[in-house]
Amino acid sequence: MNAKIIEALKSRFGEQAAQTSEFRGELTVIIPKERIVEVCRFLKEDPGLRFDFLADLSGLDMFTPVNRFAVVYNLYSLANKHRIRLKVFTEEDEPKLPTMTGVWSTANWHERETFDMFGIVFEGHPDMRRVYLPDEFEHHPLRKDFPLMGIPGSLPLPKKS
Amino acid sequence: MGLEHALGDSFVTTKLDLAINWCRKNSLWPMPMGISCCAIEMMSFAGPRFDAARFGSEVFRFSPRQSDVMIVAGTTTFKMAKVVRKIYDQMPDPKWVIAMGACTSSGGMYRTYSVVQGIDQFLPVDVYVAGCPPRPDNLLNALITLQQKVQRGESKGSFPAYIGEKKLNEPHDLPSISG
After folding, report:
1. What are A's interface residues with B at a Cβ cutoff of 8 A?
2. CA separation (Å) from B6 to B2, B9, B18, B128?
3. In terms of residue numbers, what domain contains A8?
4. Is the pLDDT of residue B173 over 80?
């Protein structure tokens, strides 16, 4: 199945378009961020692949000077009972990615969570707000440079009268 | 039966404050601020096995307007703190707060940016309950301790005029729990 997916991706997007690696039967595909929506739509709609379920979407902070943030898409094909993982990298100074809500609408809250925790903005998202933390909070707590105990005063408490 | 039987035609004198406090302590209506897993133990505390009704505390009110004591049961995050404080502010005086469990009292195992490290940073707490979660017996013990405070006319958060002649934060003799 993995070989078939690699074959399909390469014939559709060219040899250089997708960088693949495999570990214990799990396929990971690294995709340039300009093509991610296109690739996902192909994986979802191709009759032989049918990755119709976005099982999870989450962020990663590599804490490296280039390609600091990554977003990981875990896909599942209900028809073929097969999973793959897609990775997209983005830079620190402008962490922006295209939204996936047009392909799988379940991406909506997952992308909001990723924005909340990493500050990665998903362009074209219908409702790019925080999910967990208060709206007025200015930091992104799962970034590696965020201290565990938070920044004093960043989350105000009610007054003890 | 009852007082008439014991006293016959005689009468009892007391101070009004003491009589009112005696009434209050035997009908503390809790506001169940059940935020996480401690709430399960709190339900057990109210249920038939542990039976908070023995202490006049079985009427859990989900309206803060009708309750005297708020049992904050669970991990209080900074986002939730505003809600907890708002509900506390809506309770009529006199009012008391029980901080149930390790998270509520001190942040517990959640030593992290999102959890308030003890609700006494924004609420006046009368009784702390140890445990993660505390057993219902332990919460009953907190209720009994609170009843003793009520009888003495003490409350950390209420306006002092409402609860007897004793001033707030005055040193007092707490009964020792062990004996």
Report:
1. 132-134, 141, 146-151, 155-160
2. 7, 9, 20, 38
3. 2-98
4. no
